[in-house]
Amino acid sequence: MDRFERKAIKQGCRLVAGVDEAGRGPLAGPVVAASVIFAAPYPIGIGINDSKKLTPVARERLAPIIRQTALNIGIGIVWPLTIDVINIRQASMLAMARAIESMAVTPDMLLIDGNTRLELDLPQKTIVGGDELSVSIAAASIIAKTTRDAIMEACHGLHPQYNFLSNKGYGTQEHLQALRKHGPCPMHRMTFGGVVVK
Description:
The chain is of the alpha/beta class. The protein is built from eight helices and five strands; from the N terminus they run H-E-E-H-E-H-H-E-E-H-H-H-H. The protein has a single domain, classed as Nucleotidyltransferase, domain 5, CATH 3.30.420. It has a five-stranded mixed beta sheet.
């Protein structure tokens, strides 16, 4: 799971950042991206994997290990109002760019989950399914997901009627029923189908 990192190192790159995002699909909350740089040898034996394939307990166990092990981590957040203005695809790209720009060091190479390059003047490799193939991207997916989950849990305290604590902003039946009853709150993405304006 570290072959892309090792290949980049062989090509002369010293700081290789994996980049991924969480939260494209929900009806509410931000899209959050993370970038993670590890030093070799890479932590491939501790269970790091695509965050979607891990249980919440496993993600919460791994997140602090990643934070302690990584050379550097960046976080980028784009909030619903901006998502509605520029669309979720552009917001995801913006969140990833913000994550990279927030790092204390400048990466020599970006490994990006998906097939879209970022508008940054840095060497990049896009990897479809990268969160299953690259330990750095997988780690970024875990940091992005756990960061976003924490945001949505905090939002639950402000808007408990939607049960963000459980659904994290995704369009569950309970969430859709709450939208029909209460209408949207400021955390909702008004351009997303299913967000009912009363």
